[in-house]
Write a structure and sequence with these properties.
The complex is a heterodimer. By secondary structure, chain A is mainly alpha-helical. In chain A, 73% of the residues lie in helices and 1% in strands. A two-stranded antiparallel sheet of chain A has the order 1-2. The two termini of chain A are 18 Å apart. Chain B has a single domain, classed as P-loop containing nucleotide triphosphate hydrolases (Rossmann fold, 3-Layer(aba) Sandwich). Chain B is 34% helix and 24% strand. In chain B, helix 6 links the parallel strand 7 and strand 8. The radius of gyration of chain B is 18 Å and the shape is globular. Chain B starts with a strand and ends with a helix. Classes of the chains: A mainly alpha, B alpha/beta. The complex binds adenosine-5'-triphosphate and magnesium ion (MG). Adenosine-5'-triphosphate binds next to strand 2 and helix 1 of chain B.
C-alpha cells in the first residue's frame, strides 16, 4: 500500500489537472513534458552524479529531429518520439564520449557548450530549421487514431501516456543492477574502479540513456505544441529543470516529478500575479528548500519523522 | 610453483620525490606476506602501483606471466587483483548490503543489466549474507554506511574486497581504526581465506603481522631494506632499531 501511494497520488493529480483545468490543458501538458525532461536529468545527475547544465542539448535535438521527421518523412507522433529518442541518444553518446572524461566545473562548462553549439547550428541551418523563427509542423493523429485537437485534450492524454511509460521504465532501471551501479558511481568513482566496474563506459551509458529520455521530452514538446524553436536548446531550460529537480529531491524519481509540479505552478501563478518580480518568488522558494531541506521536498516526511533519509 | 605476481625494478616519482625506488617483489599463489615500514616509506604507493591506481615511472608488473603494467585499474581488478584502501573508500550513501551487492554484481559482470532487480538473485543475496556473517556485519546490514562507526566501516571495506573473490589480495592497514575487541574478526577473516589466494598485508600492528604473515618485507624510504621470516625480521638489528627506536613517535 505504501509503495502504491505515490502512483495513486500521481494518477489522481493527473486526472485532477485534466478535470480542473479544462481550458488550461496546454499548461498541464507542459508540466508533463517538463516532468519527463526533469526525470532525464535525475537519471544523469541525481543517480549517476554527472553534473550537467546542458541537458537541453538532447531535448532540442529530440524536438528538431521529431519535427523534421514529421515534415519530411512520416507525421505519426509515436514514430516521431522514437526518432526524438534516437536523436537525443546520439547527441548524448557522441558528446558523452568526450564529456564523460571530465568532471566538476569543467564538465558543467562542457555540457553548456554542447547545448550552445547545437543552438547555434540550428540557428545557422535556417533552410532546414527555420532559424530564429522556429519550425511549425503539423503532426498526424497519434497511432493514426487520435487527432491533436485545439483544446489540447489529445495532447494532454498522449503526454500523460508517454510520461507514464517513461516513469515505468525509469522505475525499472532504478531497481536494476545498472541503476544501483549509477548510485555507486555518484557515491565513489574510486570504489567503483576498485570493484572492477568500467567507470567511463558506465558513465557514457548513463548519459546516453538520459539523452534518449530528454530526446523523448523534446519530441513530445514539439508534437503537442506543433512548433519547435531555438528555445529548446536554451541554457534557461536546462537550469530551470535543474532547479525543479533540486526542489523535489535528487536521486529519486518522485522528487523530480514533485519539483516539476511545484515549480511550474509557482512559476505560473507568481508570473501571473507579478510578471516582473516572479523570479524573486521562485528564488525564495528554492533558497528555503535548499537551506531547510537539502534533500529536497521529498525528504520532508522523513525529516518530520526523525531524519532517516532513505 | 605458478608465477603469481612478479614485480621488477618498479619505481615511482611524484615530481622530484622518489617514493618507490627499483622494487623487486614476488607474491606467488598462497603467499602470506606483510609489508612493513615507517610512515611515508611508500607502502601504500606500492599497493597503488600494483592495483593500477598509479602508473609506474619505470619497471614492470607481471601477473601469471602476462605484463599488466599498462592495464588500468578496472582490468586488473577483473583479473583478480584487489585491495582495501588505507582510507576507507565506500559507497557512503548506500547500506552495507547494497555496498556488497554492488561488488558482487560487478564481479559477475552484471552492472549493465537494466531489466531485472538488483536484489533479485537469491544466490547473490545468500553470498552477501555469508560475507556479513563472517565479519559480524549482519546487525548492520541495512544501515547506511556513513552512519557506521569507523571500525565498522573498516570491516565493510574488507568485506567489499572479499566479495570480489580476488586471487591477489592487498590489505592496506585493515586493522587501523578497528577497536581491539574487533581485530580478531579481521585476523579470523584472513586466516579463513582460501589457501591458494596470495595475500599482501600492509600493517603497523605487529601482533597482527606476526600472526598472519609467513614472510615480511621491510620498506624504508622507497627501498626494500630486508625480507625474511617473522623470526628473522624480529631479530634483525636494523629492523629492531627502526621500530624500537621510533616506537614512541
Ligand atoms: N599522489 C601523491 N602525490 C604526491 N606525493 C605522494 C602521493 N602519494 C603519496 N605521496 C608521498 O609519497 C610518500 C609515501 O607515501 P605512502 O602513502 O606510500 O606511504 P606509506 O608507507 O603508506 O605511509 P603510511 O604508513 O603513513 O600509510 C609520502 O611522502 C607521501 O607524501
Ligand atoms: Mg599507507
Amino acid at each position: 500500500m505504501k509503495r502504491a501511494l505515490p502512483f495513486i497520488l500521481l494518477l489522481a493529480g493527473t486526472a485532477a489537472m485534466y478535470l480542473l483545468m479544462p481550458y488550461n490543458l496546454a499548461f498541464a501538458t507542459r508540466i508533463l513534458v517538463m516532468g519527463i525532461f526533469v526525470l532525464s536529468i535525475d537519471l544523469v545527475l541525481g543517480f549517476a552524479g554527472i553534473a550537467t547544465l546542458g541537458q537541453a542539448a538532447m531535448y532540442g535535438a529530440g524536438a528538431y529531429a521529431a519535427a523534421l521527421f514529421a515534415a519530411h518523412a512520416w507525421a505519426e507522433p509515436v514514430a516521431g518520439l522514437a526518432v526524438g529518442a534516437a536523436a537525443g541518444a546520439v547527441v548524448a553518446l557522441l558528446s558523452g564520449l568526450v564529456l564523460m572524461r571530465a568532471s566538476g566545473l569543467t564538465l558543467i562548462m562542457l555540457t553548456i557548450a554542447v547545448a550552445a553549439l547545437l543552438a547555434e547550428t540550428a540557428n545557422r541551418a535556417r533552410d532546414l530549421t527555420g532559424g530564429a523563427d522556429g519550425l511549425r509542423v503539423a503532426f498526424g493523429p497519434v497511432l493514426g487514431l487520435w487527432e491533436f485537437d485545439f483544446i489540447g485534450q489529445t495532447g494532454f492524454c498522449y503526454a500523460a501516456a508517454v510520461g507514464a511509460c517513461v516513469l515505468g521504465l525509469l522505475a525499472l532501471v532504478a531497481r536494476s543492477p545498472f541503476g544501483l551501479s549509477l548510485r555507486g558511481l555518484q557515491s565513489s568513482p574510486a570504489r567503483m574502479a576498485a570493484i572492477g566496474a568500467p567507470v567511463y563506459p558506465r558513465r557514457v551509458a548513463a548519459y546516453t540513456l538520459g539523452g534518449a529520455i530528454a530526446g523523448i521530452a523534446g519530441a513530445l514538446s514539439a508534437q503537442v505544441a506543433g512548433l519547435v524553436s531555438l528555445e529548446t536548446f536554451s541554457f534557461t531550460l536546462s537550469a530551470e529543470a535543474l532547479v525543479m529537480l533540486i526542489l523535489g529531491g535528487t536521486g529519486r524519481l518522485w522528487g523530480a516529478l514533485l519539483g516539476t509540479v511545484l515549480f511550474m505552478f509557482a512559476h505560473h501563478y507568481a508570473a501571473a500575479a507579478d510578471p516582473f518580480n516572479w523570479l524573486f518568488a521562485i528564488g525564495a522558494l528554492v533558497m528555503v528548500v535548499v537551506f531547510v531541506l537539502p534533500g529536497g521536498l521529498l525528504s520532508l516526511p522523513g525529516a518530520l519523522k526523525g531524519g532517516r533519509h532513505d | 610453483m605458478t608465477e603469481g605476481l612478479v614485480v621488477r625494478g618498479l619505481s615511482k616519482r611524484f615530481g622530484g620525490l622518489v617514493v618507490s625506488d627499483g622494487l623487486d617483489f614476488d607474491l606467488p599463489p598462497g603467499a602470506r606476506k606483510a609489508l612493513i615500514g615507517p610512515n611515508g616509506a611508500g607502502k601504500s604507493t606500492f599497493a597503488n602501483l600494483v592495483t593500477g591506481i598509479h602508473a609506474p615511472s619505470s619497471g614492470s608488473i607481471r601477473f601469471d606471466g602476462a605484463d599488466i603494467s599498462d592495464m588500468d585499474e578496472t582490468a586488473r581488478v577483473r583479473l583478480g587483483i584487489a585491495k582495501t584502501f588505507q582510507i576507507t573508500t565506500l559507497f557512503t550513501g548506500l547500506t552495507v548490503r547494497e555496498n556488497l551487492r554492488l561488488a558482487v554484481l560487478e564481479r559477475e559482470r552484471r552492472g549493465f543489466r537494466l531489466f531485472c532487480r538488483a536484489d533479485g538473485d537469491p544466490e547473490v543475496e545468500a553470498e552477501i549474507a555469508a560475507l556479513m556473517d563472517q565479519l559480524a556485519l549482519e546487525p548492520l546490514a541495512d544501515r547506511v554506511v556513513e552512519r557506521l562507526a569507523y571500525g565498522q566501516q573498516r570491516l565493510v571495506e574488507l568485506a567489499m574486497t572479499l566479495a570480489l573473490k580476488p586471487r591477489v589480495l592487498i590489505l592496506d592497514e585493515p586493522a587501523a581504526g578497528v577497536p581491539g575487541s574487533e581485530t580478531h574478526l579481521i585476523t579470523d577473516a584472513i586466516e579463513a581465506l582460501p589457501a591458494d589466494l596470495a595475500v599482501l598485508i600492509i600493517e603497523h600492528d605487529m601482533e597482527l603481522v606476526f600472526r598472519v604473515a609467513r614472510s615480511i618485507v621491510v620498506l624504508v624510504a622507497g627501498r626494500i631494506l630486508t625480507e625474511g621470516t617473522p623470526a628473522q625480521i624480529a631479530s634483525d638489528p636494523q629492523v629492531r632499531e627502526l621500530y624500537l627506536g621510533g616506537a614512541h613517535g
